[in-house]
Amino acid sequence: MLTRWTIMGAFMPWFRNHYDNYSKSHQEPYMYEEPVPSICRKYIEIRYKLIQYIYDAMYENTQCGKPICRPLFMNEISPGKNYYSSRVKYPTPSSKQR
After folding, report:
1. Which of 20, 24, 52, 57 is buried deepest, with most CB atoms within 10 A?
2. What percent of the chain has pLDDT over 90?
3. Local structure of residue 75 (DSSP, 8 states)
4. With contact defined as beta carbons under 8 Å apart, do 5 and 24 qualify?
């Protein structure tokens, strides 16, 4: 479960894992056996590559009210695309947005 929270958190403005101290005594990825630390490390590295994009989205939110986590169609210049068939689940930074 920790791995799934880490993967999801890497693409959200807030980044934390959920902790149930009643069933687990620790919440750090390195305390688990492989492959948990390797998978968590991979997605934490992806998050650090996206950090400027996340900060820009937060700043944009303070200036014009656009949500930080927003649907794909809010980033699209030309409307009318079919988003249900898209393989991309999260928008990626582009030069058009900066």
Report:
1. 57
2. 22
3. T
4. no
Residue 13: phi, psi to the nearest 5?
Answer: -65, -35
Question: Please, what is the end-to-end C-alpha distance for the chain in angstroms?
Answer: 35
Q: What is the DSSP string of 24-66?
A: -S---GGGSPTTHHHHHHHHHHHHHHHHHHHHHHHHHHHHH--
What is the residue whose two structure tokens read 């890497």?
A: 10
Give the type of residue at 34.
E
pLDDT in tens, 58-98: 899 999 998 888 776 776 666 555 555 555 555 555 544 44
Please name which of 30, 28, 31 lies closest in space to residue 16, comparing C-alpha atoms: 28
* Residue 97 confidence (pLDDT): 46
Structure tokens that stand for 50 in this block: 């996206």
Q: Kindly list the distances between the CA atom of residue 11 and the CA atoms of 33, 81, 90, in Å, as whole numbers in the listed order.
A: 24, 23, 8
